[in-house]
Amino acid sequence: MTTVPHMEQEPLRAKAAAELERARARSSALTDALDDDELVRQHSPLMSPLIWDLAHIGNQEELWLVRDVGGLPAVRSDIDELYDAFKHSRASRPALPLLKPGEARQYVDQVRRKTMDVVDRVPLSGRGLVENAFAFGMLVQHEQQHDETMLITHQTRKGPAVLYAPEPPRAEKTVLPQEVLVPDGPFTMGTSTEPWALDNERPAHQVRVDAFFMDTAPVTCGQYQEFISDGGYDRPELWTGSGWEHRTKANLRAPLYWRRDGDRWLRDCFGVVGPVREAEPVVHVSFHEAQAYARWAGKRLPTEAEWEKAARFDPESGRSRRFPWGDEDPGPRQANLGQRHLRPAEVGSYPAGASPLGIQQLIGDVWEWVDTDFHGYPGFTAFPYREYSEVFFGPDYKMLRGGCFGTDAAACRGTFRNWDYPIRRQIFAGFRCARTPGGGELG
Ligand code: AVJ
Ligand code: FE
Known about the structure:
Structural class: alpha+beta
Protein name: Hercynine oxygenase
Function: Catalyzes the oxidative sulfurization of hercynine (N-alpha,N-alpha,N-alpha-trimethyl-L-histidine) into hercynyl-gamma-L-glutamyl-L-cysteine sulfoxide, a step in the biosynthesis pathway of ergothioneine.
Mean pLDDT: 97
Pathway: Amino-acid biosynthesis; ergothioneine biosynthesis
Cofactor: Fe(2+)
Number of strands: 12
Order of helices and strands: HHHHHEEEEHHEEEHHEEEEE
Bound molecules: N,N,N-trimethyl-histidine, fe (iii) ion
Largest sheet: 4 strands, mixed
Helix content: 25-40%
CATH superfamily of the largest domain: paralog of FGE (formylglycine-generating enzyme)
Number of domains: 2
Distance between the termini: 45 Å
Low-confidence stretches: none
Number of helices: 9
Radius of gyration: 22 Å
Shape: globular
Strand order of the largest sheet: 10-9-8-11
């Protein structure tokens, strides 16, 4: 990493402090929305009690920013074990002697006061961890990632709605081509220059990708309903072996949170039930369902390299952008990110976020399943700890790209990589299809 001269450290400190505060405002909003009983309760065995997430955010901040970067004594070393994600499964966390909501709030405030002193005074050079304020960026992303996890918990919770947000923008009445050709050739995948990129996004490397067709939009609820009405859930030939096995065992029939009402489908969205919106990207489907849909449509899921090339490659300059629209950070015109809205926007709603080839909504709205296992890029080095990425490498996890309406811009970029088990549906995941050109189609 390059060393930031002392005089350029002030804006970095200010940015780190502002981003930490922005993340905390969201953590507070997500936990202040519920009473103590709802904060300590388990809403789904797949999720932690919300109050565990809050204290875990504080504990990670204490470990990295207060103790390690700041060199300060422990605030509460007695609770490290309780909030170590590797020590207790999510399902077993409600039974732990966790800090009560009031204590958890006090704890995270106390840690944050120390962090703010550290961000003001610690030298931002001399150690990889502090160059470009990386450790602060890492903890901002950690808190924002848990804020998305807490939003997922809110969606799993039953009972009257407590979260409200304005409706996303509506699509412009322009008709998008269904798919575009992404030309054959190498492109730069990953990054070695993005200051707050996490270890699994590094280093930048060249990847050769054959020409392929990419859909210009994620698969919509309307399209997905056609798959359901055409018997998609009852035709084993559309599913892989493990996909069909899971479909049978879990008795899958529709996306999570959908239910039949006479001749229409309804969806529960954070406690508000309404008709499924046909133009909206489908969300809450597993990798297996995505794969079955793609086969039904005569297509396939993109690989992770194809997805990133579609999202970043600029055919004119030959370089990879930070985002589909360019190098500027996402704003409300480019992408549905940051919990500004509590659902994906109709396809076609973000023309300003299109890639050079005209592919839309790659960033925001719904995470997109891609057909690649989690692996390290050539030259991968775990940094600063193996438990962020490396311990998850292998065939058990499939990748998700692009972020969703619940993901903050601080934890989303063209290179950002997310992963989960292929059976998971509680995450805000959808997908888009790709296709290998047939004989003669390339002219
Ligand atoms: C990158 C979203 C898979 O939530 O398990 C949070 C992020 N890592 N705390 C997760 C994370 C440690 C991680 N994901
Ligand atoms: Fe965590």
